TrEMBL record:
One GO-annotated biological process of the protein: proteolysis
Membrane-traversing stretches: 18-41
Protein name: NlpC/P60 domain-containing protein
Residue ranges of every copy of the NlpC/P60 domain listed in the record: 196-319
MF terms (GO), sorted A to Z: cysteine-type peptidase activity
Similarity annotation: Belongs to the peptidase C40 family.
Coiled-coil zones: none
Domain of life from the UniProt record: Bacteria
Matches recorded under Pfam families: NLPC_P60, SLT_2
PROSITE patterns per UniProt: NLPC_P60
Sorted UniProt keywords: Hydrolase, Membrane, Protease, Thiol protease, Transmembrane, Transmembrane helix
Length: 319
């Protein structure tokens, strides 16, 4: 205060104005950087949805284990990655596995399916126990967030997710799940192109056989079902005739993008066994990251896991 008196009253007033303006600017910048609830689209310019990064959707609360949600949010906040994306990757890779997770045929390990060398390059001790463990779910989630950040998620989300798993179908699937985990509409999965009555009739017939084993060459309730035998039978029950094999069914339907897919459409895969056909498996797409099909685990609802997304061929709509 003594220095202000020496400067004179007018100078003192100007000095106080400068100080107050500076404090105001600092406060504004502080709030801009740290205020929560910002738009994902505003923070990550390439991301293809515009929802709050705050509260999870009803679908997220239903699907995501309650003890994992805080981990996604903490890791996301630390590395500026939408928590929905981390949850979507975890669901896609191992269906929220926490421990004892499978090792892929390529050697990827743990809840988030890292190659050991990749994990070592980005490893984070997420739970603070003094070590980064590829099999520890907290460490794996934080390491995934670190990797996405290092791969430029905030500049190009699609490219960063592609670096995690080199498949455009995988990227689309992760972003689609992330959208569903956000507040707001699930989007293109509302309704069925078959119409509600036919779709319900389709699934009513399909679920009669839930739990039955997969039978190669089976095409009716007496013989059991393989994948295309099941789809041929249940669509036939609502008056839609499909040819016999997965390849023939793909050739017979209208091809649509993943973004256009709705419950009641068909989902096709390739490379699931050795054959000259491009398409080797088919299921009924039911939305929310699931299909209803006959596979090695039997007839029923199955998650579109990392394995299936790696083999995704396309979607089709019956004509």
């Amino acid at each position: 205060m003594e220095n202000l008196h020496v400067l004179g009253p007018e100078t003192a007033k100007r000095t106080w104005k400068v100080i107050l303006i500076g404090v105001g600017i600092f406060f504004f910048m502080f709030m801009s950087l740290f205020a929560g609830g910002g738009s994902v689209l505003q923070q990550n310019q390439g991301l293809q949805w515009n929802e709050s990064i705050g509260d999870p959707s009803e679908y997220a609360r239903k699907m995501i284990p309650a003890d994992l949600l805080p981990l996604y949010m903490q890791a996301g906040a630390k590395y500026n990655i939408p928590w929905q994306v981390l949850a979507a990757i975890h669901m896609t890779e191992t269906t929220f596995c926490k421990k004892g997770c499978p090792v892929s045929s390529a050697g990827a390990e743990g809840p988030m399916q890292f190659m050991p060398s990749t994990f070592a390059a980005y490893a984070v001790d997420g739970d603070g126990d003094g070590k980064a463990d590829i099999q520890d779910v907290a460490d794996a989630i934080f390491t995934a967030a670190h990797m996405l950040a290092e791969d430029g998620f905030n500049k190009n989300p699609r490219q960063a997710i592609y670096a995690y798993n080199h498949s455009d179908a995988y990227v689309n699937h992760v972003l689609g799940l992330a959208q569903q985990f956000s507040n707001g509409d699930i989007g293109g999965e509302v309704g069925s192109p078959l119409g509600e009555a036919k779709y319900q009739a389709l699934m009513s017939e399909a679920t009669k056989y839930e739990g039955r084993p997969y039978v190669w060459g089976g095409s009716n309730p007496s013989t059991g079902f393989d994948c295309s035998g099941l789809t041929q039978w249940v669509y036939g029950s609502i008056g839609i005739q499909l040819p016999r094999t997965a390849q023939q069914q793909y050739d017979a339907v209208q091809h649509i993008s993943q973004a256009e897919a709705k419950p009641g459409d068909l989902i096709f895969f390739s490379g699931t066994y050795d054959t000259t056909d491009s398409v080797t498996h088919v299921g009924i797409y039911v939305g929310n990251g699931k299909m209803y099909d006959a596979d090695d685990y039997g007839v029923g609802y199955h998650d579109l896991s990392g394995y299936w997304m790696q083999h995704l061929y396309g979607f089709g709509r019956v004509k």
